[in-house]
Structure formats: C-alpha cells, structure tokens
Design goal:
Largest sheet of chain B: 8 strands, mixed
Number of domains of chain B: 6
CATH superfamily of chain A: TorD-like
CATH architecture of the largest domain in chain B: Beta Barrel
Shape of chain A: globular
Number of domains of chain A: 1
Oligomer: heterodimer
CATH topology of chain A: TorD-like
Chain lengths: 205, 1113
C-alpha cells in the first residue's frame, strides 16, 4: 500500500538533520528547531536549559556554534572518505565514490553553499536523501507508482552504500563528544532515523 | 533512547518547513520537460543480433526521437516528465586528427543545436567508433572563447599589439581580394610566388591544391617537414609512394617503431581497433621506443632502444635472416631491383673502400647478389653490434628475430613519426631500413603485410572541375625557392619550418638570385591554414619576428575558428568552421579499402533538409550558421570560391573561371555542383547515387519530400554523400603492384603511370613495348631513354609494378647516386666510428656518442598525448580537463637519483645543437622519475605549453571582451632584449562563467546553455612549457624534415625560476639553421640541370616540366 505523505515527511526529516549538521545555526535554523518537528525530535534538549540560548544571537554563537565547530571542524571529521579510506584523508577529487554517484545521477553540489571541502560531507549526503524524497513525492503526486518505486530504490542504494557505511560512526562520535544537548540528541536521533528508514525502505523494496 | 520510525513519521508528517531550511547545495542538472514539450513519443532502439543497436537505422536519420539522454539513469523510460528530442542525424567527419573518423551530429530539430556527436556506422574505416577527440567536437563547437565574427587588426596598431576591430566578411573579402588582384596582375615570375597558403594538417583530399593551381601559385607550404617527411622519404626510395599502409587486422606481428597506434599515432583510433582485433587472433606486438608508451605497456616486447638506433636493429634482424637463409628468395628475385644494383660497379667500389664490402661482387647473377647481401649485411650487422648501438640487451633482439620468423609474410608496421621525425637520417632508421626488413620476408602488399597507400585512398576533393566553367586548372610554371630551397632538392616536402629563416636570410637570397633564380624576399599575402606555426614550429620567436615585419609579410589572414599564438600576429582572423561546420572530402589509407568521407556543415544540411534556402547560394554555410545562431562562422570552400571572384572580378586573370558555375555562368559554383562533379568520378558511388535519387523520387509524397527528391536527382552524388557522409568504393585492396596494366586492345595502346607533369600518365602503342629478359621489366625506348612501364608477372601478365623508375622495389636507388648521395643508395647504417663520421647524415644528431657530459641527454618531444592534437584541442574543455597537468619530463629513475631530481622538481633543460655546437637557451619542466624511460634519454611531449599574453581582448565595435582559449592557456609575460627572448607564466587557468549575449541570443555565442560547468575548472595549465621556442631548427639534409630530438643538458633551476619559464637566443637558433644547411646539404642542380628528380612529384601543386629546370645566369 502506498503512503502518499511518506516521502514528504521523510524529506522533512532528512532536511532537518542535514540543516543541523551542515553549518552553524542561523535564523532559519532556529525557526526550524522551534518548529513542532524540532520539539518532537529533540525532547530532552527542550526539557533542559539550553534551548533558551536559541533566542540570543550572542549566546547561540558562544554555546551552539562553538560546539558545532568543535564537532565538525576541529575534533570530529564529518566526511565519508575519512572513514572509508585506508589513509583517512578527505578525498575532494575524482576518487570519491559519493561524487561519482552524484555525477552518475545528474546531481551537482555547490560546495560554497554547503561550505564544505568535499561532496561527501554529512550535511550534503543527508540533503541528497532529502532531494530524492522530493523526487519520490512528485512521482507519487502524478501519480507514477513505478517511478516512485524506482526512486526509492535509489534512496536505498545511496543510504546503504554511501550513508550507513560511515555516518553512524561519525554520529556516535558526535554523541560522545558534544558539549551541548542539542547536537548530542540530534546525533542520537539521526542514527536512529537512518536505521529505521533503511529498514522501512528494505521492507518496501 | 528508542525512537521508532512511526514516531519520526508522525512528527514529520505534521511539520513543514524543514526542506525549505536546507542550504540547497544539491542541485539536479537534469532538465525536465516544460509545459508544451512533447513527451512520451519516442523511437525504440532496434535489437540487432541480440544487442541494442549502436545507431538508429539509416532510414530514420532524418527524424529520430529519443528521451533526453541526460536522464536515463534516474528512471529514464519510467519518467513522464523527460523531454523528447527530435534529432536529425547529419553525418560529417572529425577534423581533430588525420584519421578522419566518421561522425554523426545529432541536431535538435527544435533548437537547431547539436546535442551530441557520435560515430558514423556507415564509415567503414571507423565503423561507428571514435576516440575522445571525436566526441569532444561538440565542446569545440560551443566553445565560449571561439571567435564569433571576423576580426581585423586595428588601424594604426602593430601586429601583436592586441588591438582588434570587428569587421565584416564583405570588408575582409574586398580588402584581401584587392591585394591578391594587385600581386597577381603583373603575371611575372615573382607574381607566381606571392600568395602563400601555409597548411597545417590538410584534413582534406585535394580542394586546397586546386586553389593554388587556380591561382597559378607555387606557394603551397605544408607542415609535413615538421611531421612525416623523413618517414615518407624512405617509402619514396623503395616505392615512390610517400607512405606505407599496413593491414593491421590480419598481421601476425605488429611492429611499431613509429606512431603508436594504441596511443595516439597516425590513424590512432582506427588502427588501435584493428590491432586489438589482430591480437585477439594471436598477433604479437613489438614496440621500439625509448619511452614506455601506452602501446609499449601492452606489448609482448618493448625494446627501449636509443633514439635513431632503429636502423641498426632492423638491418641486424634482416642480416640475421640473411645469415640463416630465412628470407623470401622468390619475392626478392621478382620484386627487388637487384639487377640494377649488380650493375652499379662504382657503388660497389665505394662500399669496398669504406669497408662495408670485403670484396667486389663476382658475376651478376641472383646468387651473386645473395652473396653481396651476406657480405654487406650478414658480415657487418650482427645482433650483438646492434644491441650495443641501441643500448639494449641482445636477448631482446633475439626475441624480436623469433617473432619476425614466426610472422613470416604477415608483418605490419607504419613509418611516420617517432624515430623518423626525431632523428637526423630518420628516413633510414624508419622506412628505408624498415621496408628492407619487411620485404626480406616477402612482406609487401599482401594480407597482413605492409603495403602502399596508392589504391587505398580516394582523392576527389580537388576534382570538381566538371562543375565549373573553367574545368581543370593548368599546371603551375614556376618554382618557389622559399618553400623548396635549392639546398634540399630531394626533400619529400616543403621546408616550411624554415620560412622565417629564409625570409630573414638576405645573404642566402642574394646568393641564389646571383645564380639566376627569382628568389622572393617577401610574402605579399600569407595565409596559414589549420596551422599555428608560431607555437608548433621550432624557434617560434623567429616566426614572431618575421610575422611582425610588414615588409616581409605584407598581408596576413588566417581562416581560423579560434585564437592561437599565430593569430595574435595576423591582420585578419576569419572564423571558419570546425568538424561539423565545413565541407571537405577526405580519405586516408587506414585499412585495406578505398573509402571517402565527406565533412559537412551539419546545421546547414539540417536546415536545407528542413526546407530552408539561403539568399545567396554561394554563401549558404555562412547564412546557415547565422540562422542557427552559431555566429558569423563560415567555411573555407565557400570562402575561397568567393575570394576568387574578388581577386579576379572581371575574369581577366584567368582565375575566376575555375570557380564559376557551369550551370549558372557568371555566378560562383555552389557546393552541390562542385562536389557532385567531384564524386561522380567514383563509378560505384555514382551508380548507387543515381539509384538512391530515383528511390527518393518514387517515395516522395509531401511538397518538402518532392523538393528534396528533385534536388537529389539533379545532384545525386552530392546528395548521397550528404545523406551518408561516407562511401567505400573498394574493399580488399591488396598487391596493387600486381594490378594489370591498362591495355586498350582496340586502340592497341597501353596507358601507364608517369610523372605528374605528364598528367600522371602516358600512353604508348603496344608494339613499342619491349620486355627485358633479365629483369622482366616492360619498357619503351623513348627519345629520352628507356621508360620502364611495368613488370611481367609469373604467368606472363603485364603488371603495373611500383611507381619507382625501375617499377620494382628500389633496393638500389640509382637516382640517389646521380644526385650526389651514392653512399645512401641502398639501405645502410655505419658500423665503425670512422664510418659514422663519414656518414653522419644517417647518424642521429642525438646519438649517444654526442652525450659527452654526465648531465647530457637525448630529449624526445614528439609523442602525442592521445587526447590532444597539436594545436587543435585547446578549445575543448573536455579534452583540456583530461590532458592538462600531464606533460612532465620523463626521466629514468636512476638518472633522476644520480642528478638529485625528485618527482615534481623543476628541471632546467638547456638545449644544445650537435652540429653548430651552440646552446640556444633553456626551458624549465617538471621532473617525473620513472622506470619507463631508457637511461640517458628524456621524454617531454611538446603537446602542452600553450600560452596567451592577455586575458581580456577588447574589440572595437563590440561591447564584450573576447578571450583567448581560457580553458587551455595560462597567461604569460614575454620579454625581449636584443636577440634574447624570455617567457614567464604569470597566471594559471581559472574557473569562469559565461552568460548569454544580447546580440547572439540565448543559444548563441558564448553558448551559455552548453557552458554551465565552467566553474568546475580544476586545472591550472602551469605544468607545461613552450619548449618548441627553444628548439634549434634541424633540417635533415636529404628529406628536409625537422629532426625534432634535441641534445639537452640538465641543471637545477636558479632562485625564482619555475616550471614554464624559458629563455632563448634566436641568433643561436638562426646560426644552427645555417650550420645544418651549409655543413650537411648537397644542393641542386642535379643531372640535366634539374631542381629535383623528375620522377619525384611536387605534392599538392602539379608543376610543369619546365619548372623543374633550374635557371642559370
């Protein structure tokens, strides 16, 4: 049985996590965190004191942005190639399998917008999943069940080959290293979501 | 924490906004269908032999609908929003190298843009396959830096100032035509040496020669002497056919000492496919090369021999065959002119005196000749000696010998570049010694063997005479010393790379003028064609010097689609078309067939097939390109036809008639008229064309179909080639020398090949033909002596034989002796040091004996990169992406270690000439230590190192700057001080963006739709260097070939010096030109006061017999 709203909902979830892990918080991100989705995904964060800093720009920088830099620039490496290459180097050139996959399916990445060194950044791969969910939702709206199923196949392939093979390791590291409840809980939720969604895609395949 | 998926979904289902908050870094580049686009209706690819067909069936080429190719992986057929493109497949021919593979342009009938270039399955040479350069044609067509309209040097500026004005085709034609008219009008000897067409690779078969002939000019000046003149010269000696033609596919041994067919050599892609097929059948591959080329890398045997030692190796293998009596005795007895050699007693004495023979021959029988072979080769040229000369283990040569014996009469090779182009005497080290070895085993003309190109080649591009009012142009009755200087009477092609030296050398001009020759001191009109001589020739700054001198080069214009280093110094740059934007007939001996390809302006063809008509039929290609939004881009055929009318407006000079329509007197001939007449000369094509035209008429239903059918009936041969783009007139072309002489029994005559000034053939009464009982030659006694016309075959048949004076394979070339080179009248290579000093003409100028310093090396620069083609790929972003940063200085690892160079280190390469002893300067290259380079030698391809001196080119009359090859050229700074020139790179290649221009519209120049990806440029172009500028010119004393290799001395660069820097003293290079000329050549006149032996034709422009006579004071 098809679930016409599933794809949009899943896209929202991938979009949420992508935004959180791609760069520091800005006004749009704060708005997203304050949304019902943010509250639903991060209950402990909102139950504590930290959430109050979201409203204050200076405090946001001091508390959350400092932790973001600590987690994605300084101490934990958010790139797939770091985990997948024997020499643990970030591959920004042509030998990156994620770049190959994106190129193969006609996607282009604006590294400046994502402020990343390479196309295999955690924020980018989650955004790829969000984009594929949008394609699926559009197919379902036509409706075109066959094409939607095809897109789900691509999602499952990308998730298996290029996300689950390394992202949980990174997210566990974030969970362990984070100074803020925001990133600790977001990492925990993201791992849970990736596993759950892959299982669901597998069940539907 | 346990979160279930349903919790996630529940949370997300009620929330919106997360997607709008993402940063949006991931974009799809796949276009979706827009409202109104036709979707869903497309043609199904047929299944052929269980596989999807590679191409649509020919009958659907005019309309083939397929889904947007960019989207198939994301769902392809499943998607409902994928745009359908309706294509017209228009055949054309690739123009990126000499292999001229077939292409089809997939023209989008809605937008009139070419969406892709693929192969042409009807082209039996390339069989629907292409290399990267073929597919890259689209990127060249929509190159944002191409020149969109005619440009003229700004009035008041000097050449090279970089000041340009936008002009019109009409203005350019008027100005150039007026100048041509002025110089032609006087009609004297100098007037016939006034308009020089300086051709890079011709990439067509005859049209250009007809231009010169129609102008009455001996001013063809081809690039061949920086390309293949040495390779051709050895073939001329053996066969008087200037190139060999292999049958790769059926060979048992692929023997490469030349262009590397699996890399990039001549006929690269087609040859590589055939070689792969042969290897699948068990053929062995042997490569002789100091560099581990791609071909060598996959070979059964790689022999990293010293440059120029190939002659020693081939003669030694031949000698081993002789010693072991494993040569084809019957073939040699029948087809070598051994009898002529046995009669040449003075040559025997010479070889006895020089120690090559131990005794004079006894008798004149074939057995006596065999004894001479044993004495001349078997005694001297041992495998051990050759191994020492080549600096390789003798075991390698033994293995090669085994392969030769295994392959027998199925050995294929091709003698063109590499050893031939690199070395002094390269003609001996390649084709002269090579054909000796191959023909010893009966390898000539048969299945799997080497053959001649005659018969495997169709040249009708210059034969559209019947479509014109004037018919066939007369032969030219002048000889131009600037293109064919008297010092090189035997040269296989013009000495074009010496043009600036000869123009500078007033002393040389006066010397020959004093002897009665009309030597020009200037070039009134100079026209390079598909050529960038400043960059590609040795001593490029000398070219700049002369191009800037308006007293030596009065008016210059280049029909060129793009900027180049040469164009920077032109008066006019006239943008003509690329592969899919011009007409050319072109054929090459790439296999054992005779096929012809037809290059076409594909947008014009598409428009015409859709019913469009030009306002001026003689300018149809220009009009079509403007109509389709490509720009003011024309083509050379129509340019020359129109220019002939401007140069000779009233017909009084006798030029115009050759380009005047026969159907419409007074009007220029159209492409359809001209090429219909040209292709009509091929009988099988003509028959097929007439049938195809009749079929079209039968099937025509709509008004457009009826109109096209009427056109086809009027010009059937042109129409057939317009539809197919390729035609194969003959297959299985073997043993052309055994073709029967053309006897006319009714008239009792026989017609035979003869020198070109006799029209290429001569007819004799049958009763005058005699047979030489000893040699089996057929001959006629004429007033001028004996004319050999053929050979009696084994069963008494009259066979054509070869094009040589003897009609046999000239083991002994008597004319070499007559013209003062007796020591080289047979294949020979000196063995002792004393012999080498006496015979330096065939000893490489980079022989290891010249490497006297510990840091001296022999530098090889002339290997191609498979994705580059000299000066013609810098306008392709795709080719630049895969080729930039790939031109290091390859150095044997042990040499690098010895001299302290590591990978990536800059190396100062000082260039030294071994004849003049002068050092020209240096260039700085990037070191790549490797085990794939013979010790003592270096390799650095000169196919990198393009440059520009300016970033933005402001053009008066246009609101937007033009740019010079930004995807392939770094910006450099040039300084001049006295005769010293320096170059220094100042900025590498940078990413950039283009946007549509208001004049040319959304799809026009600079073609923003096709150039969304230029921000992805990741190469900087700073690893190459313009090394040619530092090269000494080295004219081979016999063939005239520029011998490319250089002796170099390596040093560590000084502080501040970096890769790309160079310094050269153009006085040193100039003195080297004079040293090679004065120390090594043996000038004309030859016997009979001739400038050149009469049996050697002048390529491209047929001259009169009197032009061969050298005037005297």
């Amino acid at each position: 049985m098809s679930h016409p709203t599933d794809a949009t909902a899943r896209g929202n979830l991938y979009g949420f996590f992508s935004r959180l892990f791609v760069k520091e918080l800005d006004a749009a991100a704060v708005e997203l965190l304050w949304s019902p989705l943010g509250h639903a995904l991060l209950p402990r964060f909102y139950a504590g004191d930290e959430a109050k800093h979201l409203a204050d720009a200076d405090a946001r920088v001091r508390v959350f942005d400092a932790d973001f830099v600590h987690l994605t620039v300084v101490n934990v490496v958010p790139y797939a190639s770091f985990y997948r290459r024997d020499d643990a180097r970030v591959e920004s050139g042509g030998a990156n399998p994620i770049s190959d996959w994106l190129s193969q399916y006609g996607f282009e990445v604006d590294l400046v917008a994502a402020r990343s060194l390479s196309q295999d950044h955690i924020g980018i791969v989650l955004e790829v999943m969000a984009t594929l969910c949008v394609h699926e939702a559009e197919a379902e709206a036509r409706p075109d069940a066959e094409y939607a199923a095809h897109i789900r196949g691509l999602q499952r392939e990308f998730l298996r080959e290029h996300v689950l093979s390394w992202a949980p390791v990174y997210l566990f590291a974030v969970e362990r290293s984070a100074h803020t409840a925001l990133y600790r809980e977001a990492a925990e939720a993201c791992v849970a979501w990736l596993g759950a969604d892959f299982q669901a895609l597998t069940d539907r395949a | 924490m346990a979160i279930h998926r349903r919790d996630f979904m529940k949370a997300a289902a009620v929330s919106a906004g997360a997607l709008s908050a993402i940063v949006g870094s991931v974009r799809s580049v796949v276009p979706k269908a827009k409202a109104g686009d036709k979707v869903g209706d497309f043609d199904k690819v047929p299944i052929v032999n269980g596989d999807l067909a590679a191409y649509p069936p020919f009958e659907k080429w005019d309309s083939w609908k397929e889904l947007s190719g960019e989207d198939w992986k994301r769902g392809g057929l499943l998607r409902h929003d994928v745009k359908v493109h309706e294509h017209m497949l228009v055949p054309t021919i690739c123009n990126n190298c000499e292999a001229v593979c077939g292409l089809t342009a997939w023209v989008d009938k809605e937008t009139l843009t070419v969406r892709k270039y693929m192969g042409n399955p009807l082209h039996t040479g390339s069989k629907g396959r292409n290399c990267a350069k073929g597919y890259a044609v689209q990127s060249q067509m929509y190159d944002p830096d191409r020149i969109p309209f005619p440009l003229k040097r700004a009035p008041g500026s000097k050449r090279g100032d970089g000041r340009w004005v936008r002009t019109t085709w009409d203005e350019a034609l008027d100005t150039i035509g007026k100048k041509m008219n002025e110089v032609l009008k006087s009609g004297d000897a100098l007037a016939k040496k006034s308009i020089m067409h300086h051709v890079g690779r011709p990439n067509e078969s005859g049209f250009t020669g007809r231009v010169w002939a129609s102008l009455g000019q001996d001013f063809q000046n081809s690039h061949t002497n920086i390309c293949s003149a040495n390779g051709r010269f050895g073939s001329l000696l053996w066969t008087n056919d200037d190139r060999s033609a292999p049958d790769w596919e059926n060979a048992r041994l692929i023997f490469l000492i030349s262009s590397h067919a699996a890399d990039a050599g001549h006929y690269f892609q087609q040859a590589a496919g055939q070689i792969a097929a042969a290897r699948k059948k068990g053929a062995k591959l042997v490569v002789l090369d100091p560099r581990l080329s791609n071909s060598a890398g996959i070979a059964d045997l790689w022999i990293p021999c010293w440059p120029g030692s190939e002659a020693a190796i081939q003669l030694a293998i031949g000698a081993e065959l002789i010693r072991n009596q494993q040569y084809d005795r019957h073939f040699i007895e029948q087809w070598w002119n051994w009898q002529d050699f046995m009669a040449a007693t003075d040559v025997h004495q010479l070889y006895l005196d020089r120690g090559f023979l131990s005794k004079l021959p006894s008798g004149d029988s074939f057995e006596a000749f065999e004894a001479v072979l044993m004495d001349l080769y078997g005694r001297n040229h041992t495998l051990e000696w050759a191994a020492q000369e080549a600096r390789v283990p003798v075991s390698m040569l033994r293995k090669l010998y085994d392969y030769v014996v295994y392959a027998g009469d199925r050995i294929s090779s091709f003698f063109w570049r590499a050893s031939a182009a690199g070395n002094r005497g390269g003609w001996m080290s390649s084709s002269r010694a090579g054909i000796f070895l191959l023909s010893l085993t009966g390898n000539f003309g048969g299945v799997g063997a080497l053959g001649v190109h005659h018969g495997r080649y169709i040249s009708v591009g210059g034969k559209g005479h019947a479509g014109t009012a004037g018919g066939k142009p007369e032969h030219v009755d002048e000889w131009n010393e600037l293109s064919w200087p008297p010092e090189w009477p035997l040269a296989s092609y013009e000495l074009s790379f010496l043009l600036p030296h000869l123009l500078t050398d007033t002393e040389w001009q006066k010397k020959w003028q004093a002897k009665g020759l009309t030597v020009p001191s200037k070039v009134p009109v100079w026209i390079p064609r598909m050529y960038n001589p400043v960059w590609i020739n040795p001593d490029g700054f000398r070219w700049i010097e002369v191009l800037r001198d308006e007293s030596k080069m009065e008016l210059t214009f280049n029909p060129s689609p793009i900027w180049s280093e040469t164009n920077w110094f032109m008066d006019y740059i006239l943008p003509v078309g690329l592969s899919g934007e011009r007409h050319d007939q072109h054929s090459e001996p790439t296999n054992v067939e005779a096929w012809a390809g037809f290059r076409q302006p594909v947008l014009r063809v598409a428009l015409e097939k859709m019913g469009w008509e030009p306002k001026d039929p003689a300018r149809a290609t220009l009009e079509a390109h403007m109509k389709a939004g490509l720009g003011e881009i024309w083509e050379e055929n129509e340019l020359w036809i129109n220019l002939a009318f401007k140069a000779d407006p009233d017909g009084s000079l006798g030029v115009r008639k050759y380009w005047e329509s026969k159907l419409n007197p007074g009007k220029p001939v159209t492409i359809a008229e001209y090429y219909d007449a040209a292709f009509r000369g091929l009988p099988k094509l003509k028959a097929a064309a007439e049938k195809a035209a009749a079929d079209k008429a039968k099937k025509a239903k709509t008004p457009l179909e009826k109109k096209l059918a009427a056109f086809a009936q009027k010009f059937p041969c042109y129409d057939l080639m317009r539809d197919r783009g390729a035609w194969t007139e003959e297959t299985h072309v073997y043993e052309q020398h055994k073709h029967h002489l053309h006897k006319d029994e009714a008239a009792q005559t026989v017609t035979v090949h003869a020198p070109q000034f006799w029209g290429g053939k001569v007819t004799y009464p049958l009763d005058q033909v005699q047979t030489d009982a000893r040699t089996k030659q057929l001959y006629v006694e004429t007033e001028e002596g004996r004319h050999n016309i053929g050979v009696v075959g084994h069963h008494g048949e009259w066979e054509e034989g070869f094009e040589t004076p003897s009609r046999k394979l000239d083991f002994y070339a008597a004319w070499m002796k007559d013209w003062g080179w007796p020591e080289y009248s047979v294949p020979i290579y000196p063995v002792t040091d004393a012999q080498k000093q006496q015979m330096e003409h065939v000893v490489s100028h980079v022989h290891h004996a010249y490497m006297t310093e510990p840091n001296a090396f022999a530098l090889n620069t002339i290997f191609r990169l498979p994705y580059n083609i000299h000066t013609r790929s810098v306008n392709s972003k795709w080719l630049m992406e895969i080729s930039q940063n790939h031109a290091p200085l390859w150095m044997a690892a042990r040499d690098a270690e010895r001299l302290g160079f590591r990978r990536g280190d800059p190396v100062k390469v000082k260039v030294v000439d071994t004849v003049s002893g002068l050092e020209s300067g240096y260039f700085i290259a990037q070191c790549q230590p490797t085990e794939g380079q013979a010790p003592g030698t270096l390799s650095c391809s000169h196919h990198a190192g393009r440059w520009r001196v300016m970033n933005d080119i402001q053009v008066e009359g246009f609101d937007t700057p033009l740019h010079m090859n930004r995807m392939g050229t770094p910006e450099v700074e040039i300084k001049e001080q006295g005769t010293v020139r320096t170059m220094h790179p100042v900025a590498g290649i940078q990413p950039f963006a283009v946007k549509a221009h208001k004049e040319f519209g959304e799809k026009g120049w600079p073609y923003a739709e096709f150039n969304h990806d230029l921000h992805n440029i990741k190469w900087d172009g700073l690893s190459g260097v313009w090394q040619n500028a530092t090269h000494h010119p080295h004219p081979d004393p016999l063939s005239g070939m520029h011998c490319w290799h250089q002796k170099v001395v390596l040093e560590k660069p000084g502080p501040g010096e970096k890769v790309g820097d160079l310094k050269v003293d153009i006085q040193a290079t100039y003195d080297t030109y004079k040293a090679w000329r004065d120390k090594l050549t043996r000038p004309a006149p030859g016997p009979g006061g001739l400038r050149r032996p009469e049996h050697l034709k002048r390529p491209w422009v047929p001259l009169t017999r009197s032009a061969y006579k050298m005037p005297t004071t």
